Amino acid sequence: MKVKSILVSQPKPESDKSPYLDLAKKCNIKIDFRPFIHIEGVTGIDFRKERIAILDHTAIILTSRNAVDHFFRMCVEMRVTVPENMKYFCISESTAYYLQKYVQYRKRKIFHGKQTFTDLVDILKKHKGEIFLLPCSDRYKEEIPDVLDELKLNYTKAIMYKTVCSDLSDLANVNFDILVFFSPSGIKSLFQNFPKFKQNKTRIAAFGPTTAKAVKEAGLNLDIHAPTTKFPSMTMALEDYIIKINKVK
Predict the structure, then answer these.
(1) Distant-in-sequence contacts of 119-124, Cβ < 8 A, 24+ apart
(2) Which of 102, 113, 116, 242 is the most buried (most CB within 10 A)?
């Protein structure tokens, strides 16, 4: 069955220069975007119940832009002024640069890895004397606290935002040939919105091993998977599948 339409469970790209838009043009298909999940901040009132004192910490570990935004939002809500000597350990250079939204970059002690949390390990080892705060969501990656425990670091896990299923009720009578997912939360949202969902002829694409696992555990067939050695990006995996099914030249 040919592919004519795809729903990507992410926000629509802000720029016209998107590999998904290039794919739509190249293969003459329709690609829509719709986030299946969204982020909501934990309120200052709820955060106070955790009895976490931000200023008891000397360093902040930031694993995403969401972590950056919600850390500083919480500081405002808690009326906390972050001292200039606070150290920041960021998962990537782009996350580190994002800090400029809130602090004067050149005047702060900022460290960063390349892209994954394991890249930070060697840097964290050199700062074992710090008291770390880890701003995170309610669905954090287990590997992060596992690594911090293994390094025997003094840290506090602080849930400052939550991953929430979006309302997709307007899609009840809309069908797509391929649904593309990027997290287990997206699969959860699918069934929370449509408890009686049947895959039928719909193809499922999943990015990452945990998403692929969630697809299978939900009783769905996984048709397209990335990243792989051959297809490091989702758009590459989709293109290969569509070219074969649609017999695109």
Answers:
(1) 119/91, 119/92, 120/61, 120/89, 120/91, 121/147, 121/151, 123/89, 124/61, 124/89, 124/148, 124/151, 124/153
(2) 242
